[in-house]
Amino acid sequence: MNSELSFLESYNQNIYISILKYLYTELSDIEKFLESIGENDKFREIDDLEIYYYKTFTQQEIAKHINFKIEKIYKALYLRKPGPHDKGNSYFHLTLKLHSEEILSLDKFYNSVLSNLIKFYKHLFSKIDNYFISFNPEQLKKYNIILVEIKSSVEKFLQFSENRDVISRRQKLNEQQLSNIPFGGLFYITHIDNIESILKHGILSHNLANEMNFEKVDISNQTVNARRNRFETTLGGNIHDFAPLYFNHKNPMLYTLCKNKDKNNLVLLRINPHILLADNVSFSDGNAATRTTNFFKNIEDFNKINWQLIKQGSWYNYQFGIEEGRRIMCSEALVKNKIETHFINDIYVYDDIVLDKVLPLFPNHFGIMTSVNKKLYF
Fold first, then answer.
1. Cα dihedral angle (177, 180, 182, 186), rounded to 10 degrees?
2. Predicted TM-score of the model (pTM)
3. pLDDT value at position 233?
């Protein structure tokens, strides 16, 4: 998918998935309809399938992207003296195809999952004129088998944002607390090669990621990281048992990474700030690797962080000294063991090339917005 020409907004808004989900849901009505025909031996009622199609494909959002039309076509033998349309002299003709440019583009990206579903709808409808030949108990069994297979293939695309409602019902930070966080969320910095694992398993602590062998590329400073390998009484565990998030990601760590590594490989994940009110979440007033840093578990201690310096965005602060400024700028939140995927709001990358690597991993299925944002980098 060429991100420069793609329908990124539609991708992030899950328009394709929404249509797929709607048509998938409507399959249950057709499934019940076919079952009732087979159970009651009322094969002539197959014409009623037309009603289901009108109900399904005239829905406003569907009509924007899918051409739908049902008309009666005279059979060749009756063209000269057709008379009124009936079962003997005519047949149904169904037009059913994707037509909007954005859906056609996304369908290629999704390996024609929606197109295949449309083909099933079309093939099924084509049989309504041949019910006395095609629709018998054995044929219905075959159609139901195909229906089950199609539903199974579609289900894996319908898992996005299932847990977002859980977050919406949680206790939230107040406006003053939110105003202290510079970029509207907490940030996790990682390598592009780790994104697939994160989307599958969440953001894991250093110890858990190593134990499960999920982290492909470790971008941390090994000397600094070694100083985090210690037990902290306030946390009630080893710092490496917690997944770290920065209040301001534009800090000394990201600066060093952008200067010394290929920043095209660096991915920024923005985490819902309300995770601070979840269980087993602590925060610090500086870099956790530094012994002078204090750790807190109670949100009432939120004001003990130097928000003025963090929002200022520069660690060259002569009031505290550069080293102290560096420590404060790396203030962080620490989440025990794992950050669930549904807490990730956004994925930011540096350029289109990296974006094209992320999109096929389908972060939008989890309600995660994905975009290029060079301003978030040094």
1. -40
2. 0.81
3. 94
